[in-house]
Amino acid sequence: MYRIGVDLGGTNIVAGVVNDAHKIIAKAQTPTDIPRPAEEIFDDIARICREALASKHIAMDEVISIGVGTPGSVNKDTGMIEFANNLDFNNVPAKKMLEERLGKTVYLDNDANCAALGEAVAGAGNGVKNFVAITLGTGVGSGIIIDGKLVVGMNFAAGEMGHQVIVYNGIHCSCGRRGCWEKYASATALIQQTKDAMQADHDSKMWDVVHNNIDAVNGKTAFDAERLGDETARRVVNQYVDYVACGIINIVNALQPDMICVGGGISNEGENLLQPLRRILERERYSLYAKKQTKVVKAVLGNDAGVIGAALLDE
Question: Is the dihedral of CA 294, 300, 306, 308 positive or negative?
Answer without folding.
Answer: negative
